[in-house]
DNA sequence: CCGAGGAATATCAGCGCTGTAAATTTCAAG
DNA sequence: CTTGAAATTTACAGCGCTGATATTCCTCGG
């Protein structure tokens, strides 16, 4: 078949070679490659034979230059090894593959300059569209640097009117989570962690939902129940929660900003001799692998990541197809994955 | 500065536009863009001004077509959301960025056809090199489908003579891990999980190291201590270990094939009322986020992922530079991250 | 003041493919 | 057999940039 060695390294087979062998024009070969309908069966057959014989594979770069489409999308996220973003990358990757795109992953490492580079797009024509979860760059700046490449933003970082945006309703999701805890009769529900300088709105919105629920319920609303942290991550969570306990704070549930803080909670509570969920219930956010695999298994607010992926690609394809209206904002469903840490004993 | 709106959407600024404005040839502009040394200061200045004024950004695709280099590497892994691969992707991504490449992530989802596609490379000229951790495709087939794109393989899946290969010494690492447990006086050390149909060699090699250590030590070597599983993953691990305990197996330590199985162990042991590490020590493999964040914190064999990334890129750049010798195999260092699950009480 | 020799800049042919428009062939109807 | 419309196929000009190969411009020793 096509496993013949050409023996001429670096001597690629081009469209023209196929055309010559098949005795047709380059364009006809191109038409065959693209399944263009108006090609006679005999021609198609002859060309296909030539393609197989030569082992021809189209050169993507040349095609891109000629068409202006690259078939690639950039996914710009803070860190690929953070469980939530790894999950997200998987879903977006699968959805993109399904639709015929490839994904370039760009890690911004929460660096402002790196985020600017994503928007500014130092080079050009590399990708057809960009999916970007900003952390540090703000709304104004995105609007100002607004790229000509179609862009869809994720998360609560920035929400300029110029770009599309996909998120879940953080406040509502937080209330839903709180409802679960309240229904169990939990009354001293803490919030871990109120990240002091979260450049995004996420923490704020989740805290808002938490507070709204407390107000609407017959539960204790006490600033001491809100545990502040300096930054994101398990270690910050551990430090902060430990300090809070040492300072005398007492909880019968911990509503955590994300799964990482929830892992911190499990660690600290365990050390403090408190049982989960009997003494303290714990609820995370993001429903990452961490939640599924921890012991006890962590209950977690679960954004519908597949839906995020689908919606994001929908919006992006729209833009790539030429839509040029004002930024659209889509809210995607969430659920609560109930596991051990909010189980009702009995 | 350059934030002037051109107002002509889709009307890109090209090298020629800059050249015209600066009153020089395209080539000179190109030289300025590339910091070619032999350009007079005045010319350089004038050209740079034109670049800024027009907001010119080079078109990567055209450059690629002209040079034959894309500046992109493909990273083909089973699943980006598996903690180990997420970690790996991060390190390789960072190293690649450092060296001026971008990464295209290709998820094979452990699908044979998808793996074949990675090697066969349906299209061409998309990436300069490929980093690939195969799971199902075998050595012979890789050799047969051998692509003209430089290729470096990761892991123990396949090791054809035709491609470079980076791994850690699984047998030695397993022995090191066992030594740790043996030094603590553990004698009934189990192996979780012996994945029955692991298409790669990893499980086998780790089991081998486990067995070698047992033979060399004064410990119990009993087939009942080796817990077989149908497949990878926490759930398989849970099922298998639970069954083993039910069948009467008793351990004072569990050497786990990877962190996922270790998480399964923590879950099952907890349910069984066994304390970790007092009753049973647990050792994982891969040193993923799971290990760092679990409670108790999981000790784990820790491949030097940064070194893997570096070595891989070294080999790949070598190939991209034209090296065409027989496949080289590099072994990268490993360590043991000692945490709670192998702590000595005292 | 001339010519050598290096520095600075320019010319131009592609890289491999596709869109457009035009040419050619095919075929049913007249 | 024609003839015109539809079906196929082709020619060719780029897409935007760079490498190789000129060409022009200086500077300086003799």
TrEMBL record, chains A, B:
<dbReference type="InterPro" id="IPR046335">
    <property type="entry name" value="LacI/GalR-like_sensor"/>
</dbReference>
<keyword id="KW-0805">Transcription regulation</keyword>
<dbReference type="InterPro" id="IPR028082">
    <property type="entry name" value="Peripla_BP_I"/>
</dbReference>
<feature type="domain" description="HTH lacI-type">
    <location>
        <begin position="13"/>
        <end position="67"/>
    </location>
</feature>
<dbReference type="InterPro" id="IPR000843">
    <property type="entry name" value="HTH_LacI"/>
</dbReference>
<keyword id="KW-0238">DNA-binding</keyword>
<protein>
    <submittedName>
        <fullName>LacI family DNA-binding transcriptional regulator</fullName>
    </submittedName>
</protein>
<dbReference type="Pfam" id="PF00356">
    <property type="entry name" value="LacI"/>
</dbReference>
<dbReference type="GO" id="GO:0003677">
    <property type="term" value="F:DNA binding"/>
</dbReference>
<dbReference type="Pfam" id="PF13377">
    <property type="entry name" value="Peripla_BP_3"/>
</dbReference>
<keyword id="KW-0804">Transcription</keyword>
<dbReference type="InterPro" id="IPR010982">
    <property type="entry name" value="Lambda_DNA-bd_dom_sf"/>
</dbReference>
């Amino acid at each position: 078949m096509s496993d013949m060695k050409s023996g001429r390294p670096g001597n690629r087979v081009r469209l023209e070679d196929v055309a010559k062998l098949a005795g047709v024009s380059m364009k006809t070969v191109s038409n065959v490659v693209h399944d263009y309908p108006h090609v006679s069966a005999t021609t198609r057959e002859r060309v296909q034979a030539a393609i197989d014989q030569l082992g021809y594979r189209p050169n993507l770069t040349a095609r891109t230059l000629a068409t202006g489409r690259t078939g690639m999308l950039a996914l710009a996220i803070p860190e690929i090894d953070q469980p939530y973003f790894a999950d997200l990358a998987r879903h977006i990757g699968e959805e993109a593959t399904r639709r015929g795109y490839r994904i370039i992953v760009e890690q911004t490492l929460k660096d402002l300059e790196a985020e600017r580079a994503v928007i500014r797009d130092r080079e050009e024509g590399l990708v057809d569209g960009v999916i970007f979860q900003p952390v540090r760059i703000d709304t104004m700046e995105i609007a100002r640097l607004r790229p000509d490449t179609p862009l869809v933003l994720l998360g609560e970082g920035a929400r300029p009117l110029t770009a599309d945006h996909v998120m879940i309703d953080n406040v509502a999701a937080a209330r839903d989570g709180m409802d679960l805890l309240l229904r169990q009769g939990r009354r001293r529900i803490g919030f871990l962690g109120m990240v002091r300088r979260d450049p995004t709105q996420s923490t704020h919105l989740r805290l808002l939902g938490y507070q709204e629920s407390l107000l609407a319920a017959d539960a204790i609303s006490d600033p001491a129940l809100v545990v502040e942290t300096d930054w994101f991550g398990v270690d910050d969570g551990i430090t902060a929660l430990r300090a809070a306990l040492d300072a005398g704070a007492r909880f019968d549930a911990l509503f955590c900003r994300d799964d990482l803080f929830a892992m911190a909670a499990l660690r600290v509570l365990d050390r403090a001799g408190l049982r989960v969920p009997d003494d303290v219930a714990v609820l995370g956010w993001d429903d990452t692998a961490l939640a599924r695999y921890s012991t006890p298994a962590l209950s977690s607010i679960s954004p519908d990541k597949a839906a995020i992926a689908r919606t994001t690609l929908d919006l992006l394809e729209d833009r790539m197809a030429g839509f040029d209206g004002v930024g659209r904002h889509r809210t995607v469903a969430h659920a609560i994955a109930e596991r051990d840490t909010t189980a009702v004993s009995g």
